[in-house]
Amino acid sequence: MTGGTGHLGSLLLRRLLADPAVSSITSVARRPLGLTHPRLAHTSADLRAPEARRALAGVDICYHLGFQLWAAGGADAMADANLRGTANVLAGRPGAVVFASSAAVYGAWPDNPLPIREEHPARPNREVPYARHKLEAESRCLDAAPTAVVRLGAVLGAHADPAVIRSVAGYRVAVPAIRGVGQALQFLDESDAVSALVAAGRLLLGRGAPDGGVVCNVATSDWLSAVHIAAIAGGRVLPVPRRLLLPLSEAARRLRVLPFGADRAALIDGPLALDASRAGQLLGWTPTQTSASVLRKALGGGGE
User: Fold this and answer.
1) Is the model's pLDDT at 5 over the cut of 50?
2) For the segment 240-272, what is each residue's pLDDT rounded down to a tens digit?
3) Which end of the chain is more exposed for a tag (fewer CB within 10 A), N or C?
4) Distances in Å between the alpha carbon of 208 and those of 147, 157, 214, 304?
5) What angle (nearest 5°) sits at the alpha carbon of residue 156, between those of residues 225 and 111?
């Protein structure tokens, strides 16, 4: 079952439909799917709507992927969509939840360990409301039902968010870096992300989540510095003082030069690379691609 669909949700949906052990799937998203299947029932609705709650009521397992990434309508509207949508999904009392969270919940900070394990405190950057909403939604899901929280690295692939694709393409010209701050970024192939979500669902339906639920990082085993990214993309590293990067990013967003502002620029204010060994131990999941190969493919250079 899936609550909310986006580019990752569509891939997950197709993966689940290909599994003969899945008897039926209910999906909810604001847009029509453009896909029909005898085992699929789709409801076009906002996740905050009563129709969404009714459609998802009593499902065995809810894959909750419906989340607003960009604060285009303002921070309050974004919080309402993300948190009230999560509350409405959980009001349907799913038997279990797989929640697609984000590496961003840890925050990008100069003193982050490398790599970051799940025991490390989550400290979302103040400028990143999306990360704060993800962390709050994690807590709500864990309180409501047996839950597997999957904290995903930055997902790239043919179906990625167009704004993310445009941002990555910008690396061909310049790779922004905060002067004097170490950087470590990971890029996760969309198929690997879907495999981890499916594996989390199997854990819940099989032996169930450990007491209190489970939180797993899902990311590649390698990570890239700004220098590594520039070498792959063919751009150059552009070091900028932090006091200038965030306001310049906001100005570029307002002028529509960039699809993001400080809410994404803040995520290079320190290393943000995850240790995914727990996902291997609990989910039996390992990535099939490296961050370098995922980035190279996203830039049109092919994988390894």
Assistant:
1) no
2) 888 888 888 888 778 777 667 888 888 888 999
3) C
4) 9, 30, 10, 36
5) 35
| Residue % of the chain over a pLDDT of 90 | 65
> What range defines the domain where residue 79 resides?
2-161+187-220+273-288
Q: What percent of the chain has pLDDT over 70?
A: 94
Residues contacting 198, CB < 8 A, separation 6+:
12, 15, 16, 19
At 15-32, the pLDDT tens digits run 999 998 899 999 998 888
Q: What is the dihedral of CA 289, 132, 229, 184, to 10 degrees?
A: -80
Closest CA to 147 of 83, 91, 95: 95
Q: What angle do CA 130, 136, 139 make, to 5 degrees?
A: 145
Within a domain: residue 47? yes
Residue 181 C-beta-side C-alpha neighbours within 13 Å: 26
Q: Where on the phi/psi map is residue 191: left (φ > 0), alpha (ψ -120 to 50), or beta?
A: alpha
Q: CATH code at 125?
A: 3.40.50.720
Q: How confident is the model at residue 303 (pLDDT cuts 50, 70, 90)?
A: very low
Position 151 in a domain? yes
pLDDT recorded at residue 262:
81
Which sign does the torsion angle of CA 124, 127, 131, 133 carry?
A: positive
